[in-house]
Write a structure and sequence with these properties.
This protein has twelve helices and eight strands. It is α/β, with parallel strands linked by helices. An eight-stranded mixed sheet has the order 1-2-4-3-5-6-7-8, sandwiched between helices. The N and C termini lie far apart (85 Å).
Length: 321
């Protein structure tokens, strides 16, 4: 082959390799931008207590405002609490102490602070159960930068459970998780076997975090390849966690026989009903129950029918007292 041809081929090959490297570098930058916007707290994020996490979203704004109105009526019962995480973060919460020896911990979804959890508290007060709402790591007044999609948050909740039992003498403790809060709850139920943990409610539980994130991502009009896959490399780099551990279906077979109530909406486009049924089927508890809310959206189930939602909670606890 003539030398000029060889030189031309080498140049073309070099340009192709440089183009490929630039493309990979560029998409990794895009993945970092998406990752930092969705799973990292910074000065521009809406992970604080000051406002709704999605300003302008009518459903979230309504839930936010109703929760705030509820908390203002019961502000005299609030006790400010804080603990340290295993990795040294200050975690804060508010305990609505009504004088009972039972407490439920309410765990909101990603980007939501304890203010969001107020909205779910009333049925527990009516049942004679104190309410602990917490800012999960990297949210609200709790320290931290990264969401770990339920993995390290589960370790934090175990510390909260122990704190409430050992320090505040709560004899029975429950968890009510919404969205990513259900992954936290699932990990805890599978690994925290203290007898004072008595049961849980899982509202809008997903099969895996990657699945629900993917559904959000596609709904936003983005192609999955390659950015979606690169996001989890950034996740691993910053959190030192594997997203493969954020799988609700991985933990439900380890629930033993704790009472567990699953709640889903039939119009949930993120936790698809067919996937939700797989989660329920995999749950090992012989005290599991399921309730579907017709037409309800993801993490908006109570908003679709507050009266029925609260009645479902009340009836579940009455059967499993």
């Amino acid at each position: 082959m003539p030398q000029p041809v060889i030189i031309i081929l080498i140049v073309i090959g070099a340009l192709l390799i440089l183009g490929l490297l630039f493309s990979v570098f560029f998409t990794f930058l895009v993945a970092y931008k998406v990752y930092s916007k969705t799973l990292m707290r910074d000065k521009n994020s809406h992970w604080g207590r000051e406002h709704c996490s999605e300003p302008g979203n009518p459903a979230l704004e309504t839930m936010w405002k109703r929760g705030l109105e509820w908390s203002k009526k019961d502000k005299s019962f609030i006790k400010e609490l804080s603990i340290k995480s295993d990795d040294g973060l200050k975690l804060v919460g508010e305990w609505f102490d009504y004088g009972y020896d039972k407490t439920v911990i309410i765990l909101p979804g990603r980007r939501e602070t304890l203010v969001y959890s107020y909205y779910y508290a009333q049925p527990y007060k009516d049942l004679g159960i104190n309410v602990l709402v917490i800012d999960q790591r990297a949210h609200g007044l709790s320290e931290g930068t990264y969401s770990t999609c339920g993995i390290k948050e589960a370790d934090d909740v175990k510390l909260w459970l122990k704190h409430m039992h050992d320090v505040h003498h709560q004899k029975e403790l429950f968890i009510h998780g919404i969205c990513v809060g259900t992954c936290v709850t699932s990990i805890v139920l599978a690994s925290f076997k203290e007898p004072y943990l008595k049961g849980a409610v899982l509202d809008s539980a997903f099969i895996t975090y990657k699945e629900i994130y993917k559904n959000h991502y596609v709904e936003s009009g983005h192609a999955l390849f390659p950015v979606y896959y690169q996001i989890w490399m950034w996740f691993k780099h910053f959190t030192k966690c594997s997203i493969e551990d954020a799988k609700t279906i991985k933990y439900v077979p380890e629930f033993d026989n704790l009472p567990v109530l699953f709640i889903w909406g039939t119009k949930d486009i993120y936790c698809l009903p067919e996937k939700s049924k797989e989660v329920y089927a995999a749950c090992s508890s012989n005290k599991k129950e399921i309730q579907w809310f017709e037409g309800a959206l993801h993490s908006r189930v109570r908003l679709s029918d507050e009266e029925r939602y609260d009645a479902v909670i009340s009836d579940f606890f009455a059967r499993n007292a």
